[in-house]
Amino acid sequence: MLKKPYTKYDQLYVYSLDRGALPAFNDPDLIGIWIEDESPILFFHRPKDELVAELCRKTGAEIVYQADLNYQDWEAGVQITAFATKYLAVRPLWEDTVPVDSCCQQIVLDPSVIFGSGFHATTRLCLETLETLILESGERIRSVLDLGTGTGLLAIAAARLGVERVTALDNNPLAVSVAKRNVELNGCGQQVEVYGYDVQDGLPDMQYDLVITNLYKRLLLQLFKNQKFWQPRLHMVSGFIPGMEPDLLAALPTDRVRMVHRARREQWRLWLLQKKENGTD
Ligand SMILES: C[S@@+](CC[C@H](N)C(=O)[O-])C[C@H]1O[C@@H](n2cnc3c(N)ncnc32)[C@H](O)[C@@H]1O
Q1: How far is the CA of 270 from the centre of ligand 1 (A)?
Q2: Domain 11-74 has CATH 3.30.70
Q3: Which residues line ligand 1 (CB under 6 A)?
Q4: Is the CB of residue 268 less than 8 Å from the CB of residue 124?
Q5: Best substitution site from 149, 177, 216, 221 to test ligand 1's pocket, by max atoms within 8 Å of Cβ?
Q6: Domain residue ranges of the chain, discontinuous segments joined by +
Q7: Rounded to whole angstroms, how far apart are CA atoms 276 and 12?
């Protein structure tokens, strides 16, 4: 996350270690620590060879991968800048203006090094479907569960569009910190709660009108098998490409849910699923 004196991301210095449990340390150039398969990946604004070597000496860890890269390269070559959808205007923390008229709901975001800047096709598909669903479809959406929230953008968007209760979960501690910070930046802490949670450990309370899952195929298949997952009235599912659709379609409990909307952007897909009226809980 951005901390003073930093106001934007420029060059990233990344160190991936082979094991976890780092001692607490405070470094002014630290962006954050991402935990992947219980191993830490450290992101800094400046080179930190000595600090990381010292952490390795203390813990017995080794550096398995080290890279310096430009923020734009980290973000898949995309420049993170302000953008607008039909009802939302999103700007990164380092920009003052948004390219929209004032009727749009505004969101400010520190995307950090976490998925969910709004520039990936799946996030954009989810944002656009979310706003249409909430503002145009006539569906009453009072509560949303965002499973795998990343930066928290979709959860914040749901709150901005008027959803009263939003829960945002992620198993990456850095995503949780970034999403919490973004909720705070947007002043929507009354509506949005963010927790660290791994959905592979079981599902949380599922009493929501809409569940958003922009996740990877293996995890989606695991969720589809769980009856509890289908408790909510609506499911927005993304994170897959056409080649993955047959397996995902085959795993849908068609006695319980029907497809009500399908969307595409670049090679990515999104489905909106609705519980059948006679579908069981
Ligand atoms: C593709 S990103 C989507 C982020 C955001 N919802 C969006 O649409 O931009 C998937 C997110 O799910 C999180 N995630 C992956 N596996 C998870 C798990 N088992 N439990 C909870 N979150 C998980 C990742 O850390 C990541 O932030």
Answers
A1: 15
A2: yes
A3: 115-116, 122-123, 126, 146, 148-150, 153-154, 169-172, 175, 197-200, 214-215, 219, 239
A4: no
A5: 149
A6: 11-74, 114-275
A7: 48
Tokens standing for residue 126: 């989810």
The β-bridge relationship of strands 234-240 and 210-214 is: parallel
Peptide bond into 5 cis (omega under 30): yes
pLDDT per residue as tens digits for the range 99-150: 666 668 999 999 999 999 999 999 999 999 999 999 999 999 999 999 999 9
CA of 169 to the centre of ligand 1 (A): 8
Residue 187: Cβ within 10 Å count? 11
Starting at the edge strand found earlier in the chain, the sheet holding 11-17 runs: 30-36, 39-44, 11-17, 63-70
Q: Is the pTM of this model over 0.85?
A: yes
Instruction: Report which protein residue has its CA nearest ligand 1's atom 11.
Output: 148
Which of the listed CATH numbers 3.30.1330.30, 3.40.50.150, 3.40.190.10, 3.40.50.300 matches domain 114-275? Answer: 3.40.50.150
Average pLDDT score over residue span 243-252: 97
